[in-house]
Write a structure and sequence with these properties.
This protein is mainly α. The protein has helices at residues 2-18, 23-26, 45-60, 63-76, 81-94, 97-110, 115-127, 131-144, 149-161, 165-179, 184-196, 200-213, 218-230, 234-247, 252-264, 268-281, 287-298, 302-310, 320-332, 336-349, 354-366, 370-383, 388-401, 405-418, 423-436, 439-452, 457-469, 473-486, 491-502. It is elongated.
């Protein structure tokens, strides 16, 4: 669940960045277009001529010539702040920040309260990552012109860059309350900021306002869909993605997220349709091939999974996940040799690939190579002590072996500390105590496990065994019957139950 949340948040940030809502605006020079008119200059024909040539070269992208012409214009009219500001802008576009700053400082000598020069200098400081200096300049602009929305939004942007999200929110809220702006992007940005601090309801409210102002705002629909996924409101998320597709039928992200929703809600055929649609739109995107393979594995069709993966082998650059899925597919087919080869390939590509090492450890355990399996699990836990699945798996293996029982209990308790409501982990702890001979603790945790995960056949089997050892034969029978109802093909449990019934509900025979 944590990985899913992290992935969704990364997706939201990606939508945010590619929509260009913050960074593009902060570095924009559009606000200086007014300076292209020479009416702010002193009447000097030679200065004006060089100034106009500078504008022409600037528009053609000939920045060296533009700088040369603006410099000549300045030589003829050294009191023109318009010339100096355009000279600074050209230096900025060339990446010559010190020269740009020098020209702007001359502007402040001539005109101490020049707002446009302050805005340009703030942009330059932002590009130099001098955020504090930029922020001070924007604040000076607001003091000179309290209604300057560009400066307010730019300060908010700086707070975003500095990860001072709550300060950025305050500025956006100030703009919204004071002006009730009709610009959808302001509400979109505010929604994204709320999202960053986990205020999902406020985020949705702002995003919906953005859509009210701009009904075809694709990025807002996408982000609402992702937020609803975080809130586990799958129906609303589905509707948001469908709205994107209605506006933009070839939006790959909407189709992909819709497929992921369907896959997560066991609508596997619908999931396949959406992933196939992404491939039709853009065959170069590799993720849908992986998701189709995962869907086929879920449908217990490993051959189809292998086929779709191998069809793109030559186009996949980062192959670690590719090899992992092939390993899983071959493991499902009980081709352990090939599965092991693929897991090792995944680890060769990415030595710290925790998932590949985990599946390799499980594969070893399935093959009866328990020592090798334990070595892999120990490596996982050494590198990531908070891997609850590995802690529980290794702890349960120790318990099953009847060895290292104190270590087994320690590992399983660590897993439960990370996921307290995980019924499988609590079952492992109960079983470890049973193996240690502590029936009271075993009963305590196994009853708790059943309350958390009543549909697990193994928990009922374990609880039945503990009740049997305590002489509570009717309860033992009840849980063994429940276990067999969930999974009838359990020879050992069936034999235990038959022996119990044959002995009139009393101890008899080997249990």
């Amino acid at each position: 669940m944590k990985d899913k949340k992290r992935n969704l948040l990364c997706l939201i940030v990606s939508v945010f960045i590619f929509s260009g809502c913050f960074s593009a605006k902060t570095g924009s020079l559009k606000s200086f277009n007014a300076l292209e008119q020479p009416d702010q200059m002193n009447v000097n024909s030679k200065a004006c001529a060089h100034y106009l040539r500078g504008l022409l070269y600037e528009r053609q992208g000939s920045l060296d010539r533009a700088v040369s012409e603006f410099s000549k214009a300045h030589n003829y009219d050294q009191d023109s702040t318009a010339v100096l500001t355009k000279l600074a802008a050209s230096y900025f576009r060339k990446g010559e920040f010190p020269h740009a700053i020098g020209a702007l400082k001359k502007v402040f000598v001539l005109e101490p309260e020049n707002i446009k020069a302050r805005l340009l200098l703030a942009i330059i400081y932002t590009h130099m990552a001098r955020f504090e200096d930029a922020s001070l300049l924007y604040k000076e602009v607001i003091e000179l012109d309290p209604e300057n929305k560009h400066a307010l939004l730019s300060i908010a942007d700086l707070y975003v860059f500095e990860k001072k999200t709550e300060k950025a929110i305050l500025i956006y809220e100030q703009i919204v309350i004071k002006e009730q702006p009709q610009h959808a992007f302001i509400y979109f940005n505010l929604g994204m900021l709320y999202l960053q601090i986990g205020k999902y309801d406020e985020a949705v409210r702002c995003l919906e306002q953005a859509l009210h102002l701009k009904s075809d705002y694709v990025e807002a629909y996408l982000c609402i869909g992702l937020v609803y996924e975080l809130k586990d409101e799958i129906g609303k998320s589905e509707q948001a993605y469908k709205s994107v597709i209605n506006i933009m039928p070839k939006n790959c992200l909407a189709h992909f997220r819709l497929g992921s929703l369907y896959l997560g809600t066991d609508q596997d055929e619908k999931a396949l349709q959406q992933f196939q649609r992404v491939i039709e739109i853009n065959p170069e995107i590799v993720e849908p091939y992986f998701e189709i393979a995962r869907t086929y594995l879920k449908l217990d069709n490993p051959d189809a999974a292998i086929k779709i993966l191998l069809s793109r082998e030559n186009f996949i650059k980062e192959k670690a996940y590719f090899f992992l899925l092939l390993g899983i597919a071959n493991s499902v087919k009980d081709d352990f040799v090939l599965a092991e080869q693929y897991y090792h390939k995944a680890l060769t590509e990415k030595p710290d690939y925790e998932a590949a090492r985990f599946y390799l450890a499980v594969l070893y355990e399935r093959q009866g190579k328990r020592d090798l399996s334990k070595q892999e699990f120990l490596l996982i836990i050494e590198n990531n002590p908070d891997n609850s699945v590995a802690c529980n798996y290794l702890g349960y293996m120790y318990a099953e072996d009847g060895a290292n029982l104190d270590k087994a209990i320690e590992l399983i308790k660590k897993a439960i500390k990370i996921e307290p409501k995980n019924g499988a982990y609590v079952d492992s702890l109960g079983w470890a105590y049973y193996k240690k001979g502590n029936l009271e603790y075993a009963l305590k945790y196994l009853e708790q496990a059943v309350s958390l995960l009543d549909s697990d056949f193994e928990i009922h089997s374990h609880l039945g065994q503990v009740y049997f050892e305590k002489g509570c034969f009717s309860k033992a029978r009840k849980h063994w019957e429940r276990s067999l109802k969930i999974k009838p093909a359990q020879v050992e449990v069936k034999e235990k139950l038959e022996n119990l019934i044959a002995n009139n509900g009393k101890r008899g025979g080997k249990q």
